[in-house]
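Troubleshooting log. The previous structure file for this entry was overwritten by mistake, so regenerating from the original sequence record. Sequence copied from the archived sheet and checked twice against the printout by T.R.
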Amino acid sequence: MSSSRPRAKNLSGKTVLHILTGSIAAYKAPDLIKKMRDAGARVVCVMTHCAKEFVTPTVLRTVSGERVYSDMFPQDAPFGVLHTSLADLPDLVLVSPATANFIAKMATGISDDLASCLVLATRKPLLIAPAMNDNMYTHPVNQRNMAQLKALGYHFVDPVEGDLACGRVGVGHIAPDESILASIQSILSRKSSRR
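Regenerated output below.
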């Protein structure tokens, strides 16, 4: 007879807005979404158009149980102004995986699609999980962009050394799901304790 205990629901009552960008690591997102939901979170996904090259909206809708957003002006949007409504919705915004391009857009305030607009519009905690080639990750421009975002109060869960899409092993492999989940829980628990 198995003596399995129910899992702690550390994210019960919390909503995570999960932005996916165009990194190969996006294919891992369904597992992370399932773990967030297992922890009690509601997960609403926003995809950049490049993210759709690595995982489909249908997969994300299936694992999240929620509508998936990517277009700035969908005809059947449930909100009047989509990007500001989505920006106000969550307890935390997660950008995972975060490409060098999307990190640069966040650092410079470029808002030319739904995902980047809602990053500018939200005032909720923002957690970034970079995933990219090791040369891109360590490039001084990318490091400067990340430092600028950290100075603004954005949170990061650093990538790890691992197999990269280019065939090398290096730092740039997305952090494990458990590290991302622990960061989400830590940020939200600190936010709750300050109330």
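The chain has a mean pLDDT of 92. Archived copy saved in two places this time.
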